[in-house]
Amino acid sequence: MTATTSTHTRIEPGILYFGTPVVLISTLNEDGSANLAPMSSAFWLGWRGMLGMSAHSKTMQNMRRTGECVLNLPSDSLASVVDRLALTTGSNPVPPYKHEGGYRFEHDKFGRAGLTPVASETVSPPRAAECPVAMEAVVEAEHPVAEDDEAQRGGIVALEVRIQRVHVHEQIRMEGTSDRIDPDAWRPLIMSFQKFYGLGPQVHPSRLAQIPEGFYRGPDIERGREAPTLQVG
Hints:
The protein is of the alpha+beta class. Helix content is 14%, strand content 30%. The longest helix is centred in the first third of the chain and has 9 residues, at 58-66. The radius of gyration is 19 Å and the shape is globular. The chain starts with 19 loop residues before the first strand and ends in a 7-residue tail after the last helix. The model has no long low-confidence stretch (mean pLDDT 93).
């Protein structure tokens, strides 16, 4: 195979969303109703997640107040469902910066998306039944972003969350295992420069796959097992 080298061109894109999984974050509003918001600035390290978002969003306000959330991961087949939540906010009145972007208030986010809320085991916000993956999480830390820049200070935060429960559809669990996801069956919805995409087939074998997945199991899994189950009803 012959590699072709292209010349780089310097550019200044407004965003650097080269491609990350879409997450629907469910939280609880002050009145006990559920909020559901799409975001795509997320990555995971073990059973910890880093979530980047506006410090003024309704989701951020709810997570600061309750310390809880559910990270629902939609498959690429749910792209139209996720898109129904675009330009909606759980904040009333709509913040000025969102009003300028064309956002409108929506109280029933689950209803708007057409998703089914299901009771979680260890946190109060519900899971989205149609999402193949749902992770119950608690907030462990808040990390300010761009604190060195007066123009951006206080506007963006990165939340560190710890996963307590992982729920998956049986269709994406690897056959013959109890705790592994089959990457050939799991098709996450990907956001790349504001557009929706899915994953294609594996393009090359990975040497990292030779390392048993259990090698990465950390103490947060044990902590998750010890999390008390909520009493429903």
